[in-house]
Amino acid sequence: MPENLLEVNNLKTYFFTRSGVVKAVDDVSFTMRPGEALGVVGESGSGKSVTALSIIRLVASPPGKIVGGEILFNGENILEKNNDEMTELRGSKISMVFQDPMTSLNPVFTIGYQIAETVKRHRKGISNDQAWQRAVEMLDLVRIPDARRRAKNYPHEFSGGMRQRVMIAIALACNPQLLIADEPTTALDVTIQAQILELMKGLAKEFGTALMLITHDLGVVAGTCEHVIVMYAGHIVESAPVRQIFQTPAHPYTIGLLQSIPRLDEKRGTRLTPIPGQPPDLSREIIGCPYAPRCPRVQPRCRQERPELKPVGRGEQLAACFYPS
Amino acid sequence: MDMRDREIQPASPLIAPDTNLMVPAEPELLVETPGVIPETEGPKERKPVSPLRESLRRLRRDTRAMVSLGVIIFMVLLSLFGPFVYQHLGGIYDSPDNGPIPATVYRTFYHQELSRQDELPSAQYWLGTDDLGRDILARLMQGLLVSISVAVLVEVIDITMGILVGVLAGYFGGWIDQVLARLTDIIFAFPGLLFIILLTGIFGTWADTTLSNVPIVGPNGNARLLLVSAALALVSWPLMARLVRGQTLQIKEQQFIEAARTAGSSNFKIIWRHIIPNLFSIVVVAATLDISNTIIGEASISLLGLGVQQPGSSLGLMISEASNAVDTHPWEVLVPSLTLAILVLAFSFLGDGLRDAFDPRTKD
Amino acid sequence: MIQFLIKRLIGLVFVVIGVTFITFIMGYFAPGDPIRTMLGEHFSPQLYAQLRHAYGLDLPWYEQYWNFLVHLAHFDFGYSFKTQGRPVWDILKDGVPVSMELALWALVIYLLIGVPVGIISALKANTWVDTLNMGIMLVLYAMPIFVFCVLVQVLIVFIDQETGANWPVANWGTPWHYTWTDIQFKLAPVLVFGLAGAAYFARITRTSMLEVMRQDYIRTARAKGLPERLVIYRHALRNALIPLITVTGVTLGFTITGAFLIENIFNIPGIGTITVSSVLDRDYPVIQATAVLLAIGVVLGNLLADIAYTLVDPRIKLE
Amino acid sequence: MAQQQMATSTATGTTLVEVKGLKVHFPIKGGLFNRTIAQVKAVDGVDLTIRRGETLGLVGESGCGKSTTGRAILQLIKPTAGSVKLNGVELTKLPPAELRKKRAEMQMIFQDPFGSLDPRFTVGQIIAEPLENFKRGNAREIREQVAHLLEVVGLNPYYVNRFPHEFSGGQRQRIGIARALALRPSFIVADEPVSALDVSIQAQVVNLLQDLQAEFGLTYLFVAHNLSVVKHISDRVAVMYLGRIVELAASEKLYELPLHPYTQALLSAIPVPDPEVEARRKRIILEGDVPSPVNPPPGCNFHPRCWKAQQICREVTPLLEEKERDHYVACHFPG
């Protein structure tokens, strides 16, 4: 058994559109240990969702295509698997929960059916009854009251928060080793977000499932994850244990993000420090550090060379910056 | 009307509009639209691109639509100037029946040269003659003129009434909306073709006698055309109005309408400056596609003997006359049929192209 | 459900009243006098007055209309003008089965050819298969149906001449009978009619299928590890077919009208042919009856579609 | 009591907007004859005063009626009942023409940076529209004002002839702000102005709004679901739940000492970007979902999710009362 559950090396996923090649994920590498909770933070267009979809190989193609790198899951390269092997893996070893619970469930099937279907697909020789039993069990686990009766209901009879619980039930039904949650609470209200995060955290621990939580909300990762990756313009700019990301951020972008969001516990009268400008257009060739045009610490070198992700300071903290703080 | 109508306006809101869906939008890339002006860069020399200009640029790249547009322009020019040119290209013909006659006589759509029936194309009759010895090309050009005139007339009424009633019903709701809803219910249940058949059948002879003295539209068996156009417009505008109404409801929900109200704009100004301009694309597409229906409608009515009368010409009438001799002279039925098919297809292709060009989902 | 049915039946009555009113008013204000036309050379004032009374034409228009509605409620369409004294139903009853037969087979072709072609196109979207399919479908769909008829006739003539076959160019066999001769008569019009509609269905199916394939729940189905076959046939198709139900419902009624031109060109003795000849003869009772029949057909088609909807889509509950 | 308290603060002359008993009910039609079979009680009795020059934050979860309240104050939605006074003028009873004139004093900034700008207008036309409506100068003067407004919101006036789709979300939001400022209003309702923007852009817009307030002496009603942002920008914050205000206090105070159980749960649910803080915090996880505003629970409408609920909460609707100085709460058992 390899030490790492997941090892992504130099992943490149490009979108071939009419207006040019969009390098959505460009040379991304990271690892995940079994049972680890990893947060992937970034703004829209930073490549975090595409990274996740690449791991489960669901990037819409065309126009998307994984053009390089390798994704080792339990030591095996996912990118070399054929379609059948891949469908074996999806939903059983690697599962995914998506952003919008309102549209992620099929409206014409009962939720019980949609959970049982996954179980039937991955547990050879299980009977319909047993699969349904498992579905009810899972609904119970995600704390849907009156699970036995509710399993026979259709998705439209559930609220957004409830549907996201169902999605989690589907994802965890086969005890996966890795659960990828792509902005699972963005579409939900804060009080519901708290419920869902709590539930996901608890169940992932209970099942021993590694959790990859993708979000744009730094607060969400602070309370949920052990390790954090910050993405910008298709690159990982910083990677560190959660405490270091927040206490000693090294990359100017991470620092910028932390200073630009208002905090509930801040003192009155503080002023936000915005990041000037816009993220770059990924369909154009970017020379040098993609953050250079917005960076307050930019040096001539940053505009010519692309910095590699390198250890900074102590321990496991990595940053892709020539002049980390 | 056949079921074509409902492609423009689906009977149920649950039917997705029949647009050509391109590749699914990639999840994370949508926010960054190409052409976004980076704040950090200085002003660049580039013309502002209006949404309309962008759509036209997309249309220009659509070969099929552009070929169709070319065909349509050619047919319009042919119907308007074709007869004049054609009649000046032929010389004097010494007719066994009528003596020497110039091309301005024998190349008219109504001149019968009974000694020259059912001929194949020749130097004198470029597309041959029909069973009464009339010049098929001349009749074809006249038929095209009829088709195009009816289409223009019907679309003018269709668009005017459709926008007027549709916008009022969508924007204000109330009784106009109720009346429109009931009207379209009836139109949907009352087959348009039957209505037109009824109207032209019942009032046809009246039109023949009353309107035949009206200049331009009256003579040469065209007296019923106004009636046919009125009937076609009558069944088509409620559908246009319904489409406009639906679109108006959607635009009305957009925040820029609320913003205009906050800016102190009156209802009239909001409708005139914000709603109607934003209806432009959908109305243009619907009208283009509806022209096909109108042309088919007129041809159908003439085909059934209820539209243009002898000695007049219409593509439908030509097909109807020639179809009796389909087994002996297939050429005579093929010429008007194929012309009609090409004309109608051209409008359909152009309409499809326009829809793709205007649909932001196909934006590159 | 009951409430929904009541609502729709009220709507049906409303539409029938609207349709009959339009046809009635048009007939009432039409120039010319049907009785005078009917009598022709044999005109005599007494006979004229007598016939006018017999047809109820001496009453004010609203009483005439009311009488018509009352008779209609008893499924009595009145008597024809042209063939004096012959009940309208007697004239229509031969045409109805013919038109229904034509429409039914056409519908079968819509579904059996249109839907699969649409699905294949959607799954192969933007490949040459799709382009070819949709090109053919667009031509079939946009071309005037009578031009299509004529082209087929020309083709049959050509084949007959070249091979010495004796395939008929027009007419209809015995309704609902399928001997080889019957099939020879029926095949061409049914195919023409069916393919034109199939093209429409193919386009709608393709659009609907593509729309569904973009949905998040399809991605969920894939993320669950379902093989693509199940994703398409279990998760996508069922949702994609929902809009088709409405289209089918609406089409039921419109199919009858589409038959107008086909019947006339192929010389098929259906409702369409009867209607056109009665219009030419200004036989109003027959015209009104066909209009009512068609309207009821359309509304019932829609109603059936609405009911079928609730069976397929759990989101829709009839109030 | 509370009503009187509020009334006295009006008397001091610092009140710009005064809202009393505001209700917005939307009918649901259905049944055999399309009668109104139910009401969505989107806003169900809201009292508010907004002081001149302050920012009043209005927070709540989706469907709580906060946006509807903002729109009803501006008379973009006709209130079902209640009164709205701007500068002492009753707005709900103004005839349409008078109301249009009044719009120069009250403006709105919208949530959707894509939908709030007419795609067929150029930036110049968008910003000029209010100026033209109120005849603020001839064509040349309006052009100059537009250019100035663009500079004020940090956009290059060079782009005046561009169309909205050529700008990014943040830039579009600036265009919307320029339009709202054009008539020099005293009162602006900002409806989720940053929630559609990326986090790094949000701060730019928040700072801009603050700068403009200082420069032009604006009064904001800042409607948002993000409590961190609301707290940052607001002087006072009102918390809404199911069409009613449950708590209103100075923003520091509300955060430090929330009195209503819902506010307490809401605050504890908001993640703080600091793992140390997160590790120490105790979360109140609310059970269940927000009930439907068609059939709100009787009494205090929060009682089905409240851990403090007693019999009285199920029967008697608590009024918004001043429990501490300038701290209003609608709860039978606050604290």
TrEMBL record, chain A:
Asked if the keyword Iron belongs to this entry, the reply reads no
**Domain ABC transporter: residue ranges:** 6-258
Q: Does the keyword Methyltransferase apply?
A: no
- Sorted UniProt keywords: ATP-binding, Cell membrane, Membrane, Nucleotide-binding, Transport
Q: Which PROSITE patterns does the UniProt record give? A: ABC_TRANSPORTER_1, ABC_TRANSPORTER_2
**Gene3D superfamilies (UniProt xref):** P-loop containing nucleotide triphosphate hydrolases
Q: What is its membrane topology? A: Peripheral membrane protein
Q: Tell me the Pfam families matching this sequence.
A: ABC_tran, oligo_HPY
Which InterPro entries does this entry report, sorted A to Z?
A: AAA+_ATPase, ABC_Ni/Peptide_Import, ABC_transporter-like_ATP-bd, ABC_transporter-like_CS, Oligopep_ABC_C, P-loop_NTPase
**GO molecular-function annotation terms?**
ATP binding; ATP hydrolysis activity
GO BP term, example: peptide transport
Q: Which CDD domains match?
A: ABC_NikE_OppD_transporters
Q: Where in the cell does this protein reside?
A: Cell membrane
Gene Ontology cellular-component terms for this entry are: plasma membrane
Q: Which family does it belong to?
A: Belongs to the ABC transporter superfamily.
Q: Which NCBIfam families match?
A: oligo_HPY
Record protein name field: ABC transporter ATP-binding protein
Q: Which organism is it from?
A: Thermogemmatispora aurantia
User: What lineage does the source organism belong to?
Assistant: Bacteria, Bacillati, Chloroflexota, Ktedonobacteria, Thermogemmatisporales
UniProtKB/TrEMBL annotation, chain B:
- Alphabetical list of InterPro entries matching this protein: BP-dependent_transpt_permease, MetI-like, MetI-like_sf, OppC_N
Identify the PROSITE patterns for this entry: ABC_TM1 (PS50928)
Q: Name one GO biological process term.
A: transmembrane transport
CC terms in the record's Gene Ontology section: plasma membrane
Task: Report domain ABC transmembrane type-1 positions.
Answer: 144-351
Q: What is its main location?
A: membrane
Q: Which UniProt keywords apply?
A: Cell membrane, Membrane, Transmembrane, Transmembrane helix, Transport
Compartments, record wording: Cell membrane
Q: Which residues cross the membrane?
A: 65-86, 144-174, 186-206, 226-244, 275-296, 333-354
- Name the membrane topology term: Multi-pass membrane protein
Pfam families, A to Z:
BPD_transp_1, OppC_N
For this chain, the family text in UniProt reads: Belongs to the binding-protein-dependent transport system permease family.
What is this protein called in UniProt? Peptide ABC transporter permease
UniProtKB/TrEMBL annotation, chain C:
Pfam family for this entry, one: BPD_transp_1
Coiled-coil intervals in this record? none
- Provide a GO biological process annotation: transmembrane transport
Say yes or no: keyword Cell membrane present: yes
Q: Is Transmembrane among this UniProt entry's keywords? A: yes
Protein location: Cell membrane
Major place of residence = membrane
Designated name of the protein: Peptide ABC transporter permease
What taxonomic ancestry is recorded? Bacteria, Bacillati, Chloroflexota, Ktedonobacteria, Thermogemmatisporales
TrEMBL record, chain D:
> What InterPro entries does this protein's entry cite?
AAA+_ATPase (IPR003593), ABC_transp_ATP-bind (IPR050319), ABC_transporter-like_ATP-bd (IPR003439), ABC_transporter-like_CS (IPR017871), Oligopep_ABC_C (IPR013563), P-loop_NTPase (IPR027417)
The UniProt record lists the ABC transporter domain at: 19-267
Task: Check the record and name the Gene3D superfamilies matching this protein.
Answer: P-loop containing nucleotide triphosphate hydrolases
| Entry keywords, A to Z | ATP-binding, Nucleotide-binding, Transport
Q: Which CDD domains match?
A: ABC_NikE_OppD_transporters
Instruction: Please tell me whether the keyword Signal is annotated for this protein.
Output: no
Q: Example GO molecular function term? A: ATP hydrolysis activity
A GO BP annotation: peptide transport
Family from the record: Belongs to the ABC transporter superfamily.
What name goes with this protein?
A: ABC transporter ATP-binding protein
Species lineage: Bacteria, Bacillati, Chloroflexota, Ktedonobacteria, Thermogemmatisporales
